[in-house]
Amino acid sequence: MFRSITILLAFLVLVLARPALADECTSPVFDSTGKINAAEIEPILKKIQNDGADPALVRVLTTDEMNKHGNLDKYAGDMLGRCPSWQSAGGRLKANIFLLILEPKGKVAVQFAKKGPFQSVFPNERIVDIGQEMGGPISKGDLTGAAKAGLMRAHALISAQKAESRIVASGPVTIVNHNEKPADLSGGFSFLKWLLVIGVAIGGIWLLFFMRAKKEKTQAAQQTAQTKLASCNNLITDFDSRLTRAGSMLNSYKATIGVADFNSYQATLQELDSRLSSAKSQFANSATSSNDPASSGLSADQYDAMARIYDRHLETLDDLDSAITRFEGIVRGIGKLRDGAQPAIDALAAEIENATSVVNAEKVLKTEVPRSALQQAINLLERATKELEAKSFQAVACTCKEGTSNAKRATQLVRELASRKQNIENSISQLDRLVMSDRLASIDALISEIRTTYGEGSESPALEQRAAVIQKIQERQSATTLAKGSCLTQTWDLAEQQIAIAKSTESAIDNAISTVQNLSRRLANARRPQQSSSYRPSSGGYSKGSSRSSHVTNTTVVNNYGRPGYDDNGLALGVGLGLAIDDLETDAENRRERSWGSESRRSNDDDSGFGGGSVQTSSSDDGDSGFGGGSVDTSSSSDSGDFGGGSNDD
Fold first, then answer.
1. Which pLDDT score, from 0 to 100, does residue 589 have?
2. How far is 649 from 461, CA to CA, in rounded Å?
């Protein structure tokens, strides 16, 4: 039903909006910008009407309106379907229509029937001619002057064509629409009458649904307020009975628990009872006749206000409910605490005895830390015994729990000492078994082979890797020595730290050896005969200050077998060596980033921009719309260029 009402209201809006549309269809000058003096333009329009135009119109659109339609040509096509005065008897465009459209930023369009008498008057170059006449005033913001200039130029063109007898009509042309009927004002009054009836009906339906919705909203608000009031009453009644039961249970333990504990529990009970009394008083002050949800005839807002009041009371009662629940648990647990106090002390004593035997059994390794934890457990056992004598059962439970944790910790620490020492010793043995001198000998052999095979200087990158290997071997030896010393002093944390440092050097050494092996393979590949190869060294191959980036330049190698004095393989090897060195340094850089955290390389992409543009003048053909003509851009702004080239309004 609401959807039907919406549709009817939309229909009314469209009907009431038709007079404004009719004005845009029939007015000789229609200006959306408010910058046109129609009185100055209409006399020139009459000249064009005398030339044979029926109708002759000027339309001035804002830029936003033009953009909404797409362009000026599409605006004319849209208006054709909405304006009967522009249409012939068959619903197509009138043959003698003349339409000039412009917008403040320099867009201009001349529209006419593409099969009418003006088709021969306004080819594309004439439309540009009209735009040129209008360009100067538009650039100065004089839209009235622009319209006058365009119309005068159009009148001159039409008059010239008439003088050559290309236009037969010599005055206003009247086209009779046989489908049109004389205006019948009685129909208008009948429409208004039915419009009034429909409006009254819609208003009545809307009022009916409004009242029904209002009633349902009020009922829902009243029910919510009543529910919250009932919840408050139920909680208060329940709290009274719960506190009474908890007080009776507490009194039953009075003779079996300590005075201090009983007084503490009793104080908590009194605090809860005081909070309940305060909540009752505040609730009673609110639950008066003025806040009674059972009252009828109130609005939804009034019931909502009541619900908010009882919501605040429910928040207070919820907090009190949580506090009472905690107290009930404490009181119910008094018996368990009392009965479990002595067993808890006995269990702590047994745990201490076991920890003592474990600590005393360790004669070799340092046990200062485990003994400290054991002593804390012994002290807590003594405190728990005194708390039991004072019948402070809750304190006994807490103290025994803490003491047991310390005793178990002492036992665990002692047991970890032996296994920890064993793991550290095993790690040191592994470090000793792996002889690093073999790695150094391996890389030395590779360097010697490269120098012998490929000449002096070819091994330079490999020497850098050898220096890195020596440094890592020294770090490994130093860390291993320090780990051994830490074992002697039983400083296990330091020993484990140094073992980790020593192990981390292995992967770095392996990476360096692999880099040298890759260099050897690349040099071997480069020495093979090449049919045709081209190498262009990268601009960033030696960006860190090395001068080797100049040892190979842009080079093209073409083998000329059998040519005296031409060393094909030597030249190919030189090129390949440069390529291998470049690849090697890139590979080494990547490995250092992974192994030793060197700087990461970055590259910047060059920004590029493009500029340019084009303009064109074209006539538009809207197909079935029946429009001919075209549009030009007379704007003098830098974005569209100077007028004269012409631009398609699309």
1. 53
2. 66
The identity of residue 313, as a single letter, is H
Residue 234 structure tokens: 């139920």
Q: pLDDT above 90 covers what percent of the chain?
A: 20
Q: How many residues does the chain have?
A: 650
What would the mean pLDDT of 580-602 be, rounded to a whole number?
45
Convert the pLDDT of each residue in 98-113 to its tens digit.
Answer: 888 888 888 888 888 8
Closest CA to 291 of 350, 240, 364, 232: 232
Closest to 519 in 3D by CA, of 457, 469, 458: 458
Residue pLDDT, tens place only, 44-70: 888 888 888 878 888 888 888 888 888
List the end-to-end C-alpha distance of the chain, in Å, as a whole number: 44
Cα within 13 Å of Cα(289), Cβ side: 0
Average pLDDT over residues 13-26: 55
Cα gap 479→508, rounded to integer Å: 15
pLDDT, position 645: 37
> How far is the C-alpha of 575 from the C-alpha of 530, rounded, in Å?
11
Q: In terms of C-beta distances under 8 Å and separation of at least 24 residues, what long-range contacts does 268-277 make, across chains too?
A: 268/327, 268/330, 269/243, 269/327, 272/243, 272/320, 272/323, 272/324, 272/327, 273/243, 275/320, 275/323, 276/236, 276/239, 276/240, 276/243, 276/320
- In degrees, rounded to 5, the angle at the alpha carbon of residue 128 between the alpha carbons of residues 126 and 133 is 95
The token pair that represents 202 in the structure block: 């819609």
Token representation of residue 91: 């619903």
435: how many CB neighbours lie within 10 A of its CB?
Answer: 9
Cα separation, 636 vs 643, whole angstroms: 7
Burial class for 197, CB neighbours closer than 10 Å (0-12, 13-18, 19+): exposed
Backbone dihedral angles phi then psi of residue 618, each to the nearest 5 degrees: -145, 150
619 membership: H or E segment, kind and range: strand 618-619
Q: What are phi and psi of 556, to 5 degrees?
A: -115, 125
User: Residue 556's closest CA among 542, 568, 540, 541?
Assistant: 568
Mean local confidence (pLDDT), 179-189: 49
The average confidence (pLDDT) of the chain is 76
